[in-house]
Each structure stands twice: as structure tokens, then as C-alpha cells.
Amino acid sequence: MLQQFRAILIYYKALAMWSFFATIILTVIVPQIIPALLTKLFLMFIYYWIINDINMRKRIGFYKMVGVSNLKLVAQLYIIDGILTCSFLVAIKCYI
User: Fold this and answer.
1) Domain with 46 in it
2) Where does the chain cross the membrane (predicted)?
């Protein structure tokens, strides 16, 4: 279980910068938690569709070695990203 979570965190590290840019754009447009989480959920659906592509699956299959399914990967990435997004938005709302 811990090894699976580490694999997911390693994978999230590559996506963290893109997620942070999306969070900043969402903060400028709509600095509210619910629309930000819904937008991130939509982006995760698109990401899930991309990683189910056969060619992409071959390139990013290292997390499969520890037994993480595509759905579990996307769900845990969304949870991690949601926590970070909510934390960022709450911190920004203190200064706005």
C-alpha cells in the first residue's frame, strides 16, 4: 500500500507544475473552491481518457508495476490535487 502511494506521488510530481498553473488560472478567474474542484475533476476525466490510450499506456506504465490501476491512479491524483487546490485557495482568500 505504501509502495503504491509512493508511486502515485512520484507520478504526481511530474503533473504538479501543470496543476499549479491551472490552479493559478482558476484563482484569477473564479477564486472559489467548488468551481475549482469541478474544473479539476473535468481535467482528470480528460487525463483518464488520455492514459487509457494504448500508446500512452506503454509510456507511463511504471505505476502498473506496483499494482495501481488507471482508475485508482486518477482518483488518488484528484484527491491529492484537490487537497492542494483547497489549501491554496483558502490561503489566497485570506489575502484577497
Assistant:
1) 2-95
2) 7-27, 33-50, 71-92
